[in-house]
Amino acid sequence: MYLLLLGLAIFIGIHLLPSCSGLRRDIVGRLGEKTYKMVFAVIAVIGIVITTIGKTHAPFIQVWEPPFWGRDASYVIMLFAFVLVTAAYLPSNIRRFTRHPMLWGVVLWSIAHLLSKGDAAAMILFVAIGLFALFDMVSSNIRGARLATEKLSINRDLTVILIGAATYFVVLT
How far is 160 from 173, CA to CA, in rounded Å? Predict the structure, then answer.
């Protein structure tokens, strides 16, 4: 369980840097933007790897019994999560309705997994990442995140939906 907590601390900790604009600015000033992004990415990946190893090796401690419908609901919720994460990287009208499609996708991912898993390690992982995503939305809004205003072709939305759904089904199989 310690590795899971360490990995989460590393992953979430590095992702807190943008919330501390003065600290981020100082680090970028010393390293340069390109090096900062590379170091950020490496540390984030290290956090993910340690989190994954920690989750895999964590003892199974049943905390609650997920509802009988939780697993089925998680499949539906995850489809929407994949579409939202796709919308974070491809232009579409979805950004006219939310400033944070990736973070909403992460929140849905967390909820979906909490509905189908009831062990302590899963709860720690999915609650921590879900709460961090909500915090990051608020933090980004405070720093000036805005909704997109440009109306794009419906074809852009269909492309995002199709790519998100296709990716979901590839991961599912």
Answer: 20
